[in-house]
C-alpha cells in the first residue's frame, strides 16, 4: 500500500500549508500585522491549494506578496472579475499564480489560492494589514487574531458564490496540521501597565523607564486552534490626540494618498443624563439556531453558547428600568415572540420572560435572522419609547451584507446593540449591524468581563441622543481639511471617537499648529472638546493613517459584491485601487512568469483544513459575574458584615434607574459563580430582594445573621 506523503486531512489528503508566522506591531491604539503562510508541495503532482480563513472586518489589507525560490513577487490589486480572469489565464499558460480576495458575502472571510505549485516547491505568501483596536469596558485595548471559522448558514440558492461554500475539510482543533507563531511589539508614550492573553505567552520583556514598549510572543508549539486575543492596558487611554501623516510622493492631486492625512481621536467627557432616562422599547433578538449548541471556545468547554447568551439576556432583563417596554424573540429557521406586542416592564412580565428564557434551547435549525428583523421593524412604535434592539448571535450567517442592509434601512428609527457569542462569531455581522444603526458591538468569548460589557451596552442604550454633532478646524491660511470619515451622528459616554481627514493646500512651517474642535448638544446644552496639534506630518512607509482612512470610507460604501449600489461601487473601486486596500470588489493577484511549464494534466485541488469548534455535548457552568452594582454591594456588605446593608430594604430600592447603579463595571470578588447567578435570579424587577431564607442561603449565612446585620428599625419591621 502506498501512503500519501506529508501532512494529511481526515480524508488522508496531503496538506500543503505547513505553518503561519505573524509579526504584530501595536503603537498606541493601531495594530500593524504581517502574516506569512508557508506552503510546500510534498506530492508528485502539481497542486492548486485553497485556504479559507477569517479576518477581523476592521482589517485594512494593503499588501500581498509571494516569495518563490528566493524571488519576491508583489501582487497587484485589481478589479475582482479581472483578477479572476488573469488568475485562470496564468494557470492555463503554465505560470504560477496567487490570488487573495475578500469573500463576496462577508467582510470577515478571505480566500487565498495558490495555483500551479509544482512538486517539491516551496512558497511563502505574506499579507499585511492595519486596524484600529477597540477599547474594552475595563480600559484594555483588544487585538484578536482570528483562527476559528465555523460553518455558516445559507438559505437555499443564496450566497452560492461565497468561498465558504467551498468543500473545505474541517478538523477538530487538536488535529490541525499547521502551527502558528506570533511575535508582538507594543509601544505607548503613556507607558504599558500589563499585557494579558488567552494563550500561553513567553515572558514579557518591558523596555524604557516607564515601560513605554514591550515585546511578547506566543509560547512555542502553539497550534492555530483558537482565536489569539491580546489585551493591552496602558497607563492612560483617554487622552485626545491628532496624528498627521505625510502623503505618498508623486501621486495625483485628486488621490486620497497624495495629501497628508490626519487621524483625530476624541474621548468626549459626556455627562450623565439628568434626570436618568427610564423610557424605551427594548427588543431582544436571541439566536436559538442549532449552532448555538456549540461550546464558547476550546478553553471553556463547559459553557454552551446558548447558555452564555441566556445569562447575558437575564442580566439585561434584571437591569431594565421600571416603566420601559420590552419583548423577546427567539429565532432560527423559524421565530417566535414572547409577547404579541412589547409589554410594560414590571415584576409580573419580568417573571414570565425569565421563565421562558430558561426554557430556551438551541433547537430552531438555521440562522435565518432577516425574517424576525423585518417583523420587529414592521411593528408599530410606542410614543415616547424609542426602539433599542439587542441582538445575541454567533453570527453564523453567510450573507452578512443582506442583514446589514436591512438594519441600515431602518437605522433612523432605532439603535442596534449586538453581542457576538463564542469564538468564530462573525465580526462582519456583529460590528456591521451595530455600526449602521448607531449602536455598539460586544464579543462574549469567555468568563471574563462579561457583565461589564453587557451593562455598558445597556447604559449606552439609556443615554439620550447627542444632537448636532460637528467637527470644525482652525488651520493656517491656505490649508483646509476634507473629511474622509462618514458624518458622526452618535457619541456615547466613555466612547473613543476616531475620525479621518485629508489636509489639502500649502503646508505651513514646521512650528505651525492647528486646532480641531468637536461640538455637540446634549439635553439642550452645548459642549465642545478641543485638541491642538502639530502640523508637521510624519513619514510612515506603510501609510498607516491613509490606509485606515480608506478602510473607514470603504466600510461606509461597500455593502458586498451584489448589494453595493452602482454609484457607491464606482467610489469603492476608485478608493480601493488608489489606496491599495482590498474590498469586496477587488482582489490581489501575483503571477510568477519565470515558471513557464505547460500543465500536462489538471491540477490536483487541495483545500487547507480550517478549525471549527465541534458541537459536542458538554457540562454547563456559569460565568463569574456580579450582575448589578446593587447585587455586588449587597454581597460584599453582608458577606463581610460591614456596616448595615441598607441596599436590601424594599423601601430603599423602589427607584430603579441607571443613576443608582454604581460600580457596574467592576467584577465581583466575593462570591463564586453559582452564588452570583442565584443572587441575580432572586432580584425583583424594582431592584430589591425579599429578605427570606432563600436569600440567606445564597449569601451563605443564616437568616438570623442577616437580620442581625440590618439597622434596628428594619429588624423591628421584620419581627
From TrEMBL:
Entry superkingdom: Eukaryota
InterPro entries, per database record: VIT, VWF_A, vWFA_dom_sf
Annotated region (Disordered), positions in chain: 634-661
VIT domain ranges (all copies): 1-131
Family matches, as SUPFAM superfamilies: vWA-like
Domain VWFA stretches: 281-462
Record PROSITE patterns: VIT, VWFA
The protein's name in its UniProt record: von Willebrand factor A domain-containing protein 5A
Organism of this sequence: Equus caballus
Gene responsible for this protein: VWA5A
